[in-house]
Amino acid sequence: MDNFVFQAGDLSAELNRVVLQQTKLAREQLQSLTSKELEGIHGARKCFKRLRACYRLLKSTDRTTFLQGNQFFRDLSAKLSVLRDTQVMRQTLLSLRAGNHGLVDTAVFDQLERQLALQQRESIAQAMAQAQLVCDQLGQFLRRYNQAEKLTLDSDVLLRALVKSYTLARRSWKPARHSGDDDDCHHWRKCTKYYWYQLRLISVLCPPPKKQLNLLERLCSLLGDYHDLAVLKVQLTRMATAEQSLQALIAQRQRQLFREADDLAESLFKRRAGHYAAWLANRWRKTVP
Predict the structure, then answer these.
(1) Count of domains in the chain?
(2) Which of 139, 213, 253, 256 is 20 to 30 A (C-alpha) from 229?
(3) Residue 6 within a domain
């Protein structure tokens, strides 16, 4: 069973269990790193996103704890971002090459892949050192956590947080839709991802419609691919690579991704916040003892 799920009705106990489990998992991922096997960095950063989603549940009732937890795991994730960004850009470039269909000269892809491979080699030593520092900080966090007063959560706070996350995801979709700006789309992606993680937390106690959860996961994936292309665009500028055909290919792919994401959002965010709150509360009452 997925451990990132509340499995029993004692919400405080489940929240503390999940926080400890995800922190330990992140530490294990980083301890498994070698100079040739670096996937643990991606795994650890996913744990940090889940942990931030957990702390966001407390935002309305314990803002200090929310701010401390959210900032702590955000900062740890940032320390591991350099190598991960390079890996993502290489994967994105390979995906673009596969769907190129002759629009961009293959020599352009070859040149960029060489540059990114060199950049990745240069960042491995830095990433390994940072991973060790992050690992040490996680160990310190676990020792403090075991001695501190535990997090508390009840159903009213949980449902309020879920409604807030839904509202933020819905609200951030509108400016992204109208501006098409990469930063607006990135903000929409972050809000949507937190909402998806929080729905996963209640997927045993109060299962959302399976189709809704699957579509939301698909939306997160589309917006993630869109963001990866935006990161690559910025890197191309830094490399002084202004190959117009490649920029056009990236823009075309981003438009395709956004159209599909926008279509999904139409069905996922059709309820206004008040209607969503009533729907969720009714579903909770019917399924949770």
Answers:
(1) 1
(2) 213
(3) no
